[in-house]
Amino acid sequence: MTQPEAVARDGEVAVFTFDHPPVNALAQPVRARLLAAVEALDADPGVRAIVLIGSGRNFVAGADVREFDRPPLEPFLPALLARVEACGKPVVAALHGATLGGGAETALACHYRCAAGDLKLGFPEVSLGLLPGAGGTVRLPRLAGWQASLELMTSGKPIGIDRAIELGIVDRRVDGDLRAGAIAWARELAHAHAPPRRVLDLPVPASRPSQFEEFLRALPAAARRLPAPPRIVEALASAALLPADAALARARALFMECLASTESRAFRYLFFAERGAVPDVVLARAVGQAAVLGSGTMGAGIAISLATGGIPVLLIEAKQEALDAGLARVRAAIDAAERKGRLDRDEAEAARGRVQGSLTLAAVAGADLVIEAVYENLAVKRELFGRLGQLAKPGAVLATNTSTLDVDAIAGASGRPADVVGMHFFSPANVMRLVEVVRGRESSRAALATVHSVAKRIGKIAIPVGNAFGFVGNRMLYAYGREKELMLLEGAKPEVIDKALVDFGMAMGPNAVGDLAGLDIGWQVRKEWRDKPEDPRFYRASDLLAELGRYGQKTGRGFYRYDTPGGERTPDPEVVELIRAEAERLGVRQRQVEPGEIVARCILALINEGARILEDGIAASPSDIDVIWCNGYGFPRHRGGPMFYADTLGLATVVDSIRKLARAHGERDWTPAGLLVTLAGAGASFASWQSGRAAAADGGGRQG
Ligand code: T1G
Fold first, then answer.
1. 625-648 pLDDT, tens per residue?
2. How many whole angstroms from 81 Cα to the centroid of ligand 1?
């Protein structure tokens, strides 16, 4: 049913406003309203031009991604855009903010395009494992040419107003009131009897057939192995060679192939899993001023995130030299963000102005949120929280950035445990989006809501976790690392293990990660670990190297050597010999370990530990675990995360594989988690288990 109010009139110019918060996604009702409006306005003799504009912060953010997992609903976007383009009167797109995917394609189907200075126009479909499926692959090259179209659509990165004008995608910039400017231009076009300038009527730019093959070959191997990038190139190639209608049909067919792929389902699953609502958001306290204790790598990184996220932050240190170094680190990062264009000049200036330093702990009295990021030692943290409990103002939230210590033990020292939570940032804290929000036994819902709200405000992905050793991510990392350490002793070379897991899709191999973080870090944690597994082989290879002072990149030697001029990693035969001798001492038989076994043991260890974490109630859902591992540990997004990946394998297969490993390596590490056995036995999946629990939490779920 058309809602006439969606269209306003300004004389002979009609204005259709996309008004579908929060981002004007092209959901079915929006598409239906636009179709009805275009039909009505095209037939209305009193209308001589049409403006399409978005309400709120952006034009249109794209198709409604939620619709992709349901039966398609008419009007389908390609046909709708063809109808917009066929309109007999000039249609002017007035663009601002996020103009993405189907939003950008809607703009291309219009006859003229103007935009405000905050335009972010792009084709992020590739990050969802898709391609622009509503005509963008046929229309965009006619304006921007082949190379720019290939780059825009395979990178998914948006462009700003200047580049959009330079490419001929946008005709003119409108400063000030975009709506008024667009209407004035539409009126001007109407009075000049300007024709509907249809992009599909433009000539197809010349192309070299080899251009597409060359571009595809130049893409990173990991991208070429995914369904979408090669199909984006093929859709564009077909637009160069086929008549428009055939090219549009080819693009649609390729889009449907992507849509059906497991990789795209994984990307879309993560898209929503990463956007969970802030729990108890109404209880969140206002945070106008933050304080960070400790200006080392973590403290400075957290301060950078707060300042660039719009929150004034006081960096507090005990010594002037450390404080100066910390402040310099913060300013350098803001300068770098400005240089790389991640912050414009005003944003960078504002961020610098939000950072102050202090040498007195009492200065926390002005903070609504205090984040402690000092040395990872329980006694040090307890002493500090004892003082914080006195000095911080009532209602201020006190967060510890600990990654391994007991949040309750820290909270207990504060005298106000309800105000204490964990905020486990990942290093570098100003780059990594993930924060594990750790609830202590007495953490109040208001304190938790406050840190979740702050995390979202500064662009982080905050996942609630329970207060148990390693929380979620690191506890699973220990299971994953346990297996790679055993396989080192069994004779697998560090580089063979790393390659197998990188080929699976991990961003880095575990041995390279250890060298990067510093093998001494884990070594220290394991020395203080109270109930470490009683197994002399547990992390023995890493500990041996640490004992020998081979800490990794920082000492030039770890699992690899780092003595080339560029500091690249090179395999080190000496390490293989050291580990082999240690294995002999421990009585571990050496053998050939195949890549398939490496992947199976490391990834199944992740899945099994994740299931145990769910049983223990330390993570709220399988998707929370997947978000943690894809954003904190480089698990391949196209596999959705360990738990999503387990579902794609099938839980019965997972349980059988674990039982086989138990027969080969012992029950202690390879007893399948009870939840896994239960779900496998019921023919269920983690996804069905999660949706069942969500429905139950909704009080029996919505009827019908
Ligand atoms: N569909 C459905 N919901 C969406 C959405 C979308 N496209 N984009 C955002 N949301 C929801 C999101 O889940 C969240 O919900 C809220 O909006 C705010 O999002 C046909 C096939 C626009 C830059 O990939 O990049 O078009 O948590 O937290 O940080 O060929 O959202 O409030 O319940 O991200 O201000 C292509 C995806 C689709 C753009 C705003 N378009 N969105 O960022 O808010 S495929 C995209 C974004 C397509 C065509 C193809 C960002 C944003 P909730 P947010 P934000």
1. 999 999 999 999 999 999 999 999
2. 20
Task: Decide: 319 and 359 in contact? Cβ < 8 Å.
Answer: yes
Q: What angle do CA 522, 526, 530 make, to 5 degrees?
A: 150
Residue nearest atom 14 of ligand 1, based on CA coordinates: 275
Q: What angle do CA 365, 370, 373 make, to 5 degrees?
A: 130
* Residue 125, CA distances (Å) to 63, 271, 351, 421 in order: 10, 12, 31, 37
Q: Does the model's pTM come out above 0.70?
A: yes
Same domain, 173 and 102: yes
Binning pLDDT at 50, 70 and 90, where does residue 700 land? Answer: low
| Cα distances (Å, whole numbers) of residue 599 to 73, 364, 602, 637, 663 | 41, 47, 5, 16, 18
- Domain end, chosen from 231, 260, 289, is at 260
Q: Are residues 412 and 535 in the same domain?
A: no
Assign 276 a pLDDT band (cuts: 50, 70, 90).
confident
**567 CB less than 6 Å from ligand 1?**
no
Q: At what angle do helices 595-615 and 473-489 cross, to 10 degrees?
A: 150
* C-alpha 451 – ligand 1 centre gap (Å): 23
Beta-carbon count within 10 A of 503 CB: 15
d(CA 587, ligand 1 centre) in Å: 55
Cα 296 to Cα 443: distance, rounded to the nearest angstrom: 26
Pocket test for ligand 1, best of 18, 20, 23 (most atoms within 8 A of CB): 23
Based on the domain organization, do 495 and 544 belong to the same domain?
yes
Residues 248 and 295 in one domain: no
125 is catalytic: yes
The Cβ-side half-sphere exposure at 431, using a 13 Å CA radius, reads 7
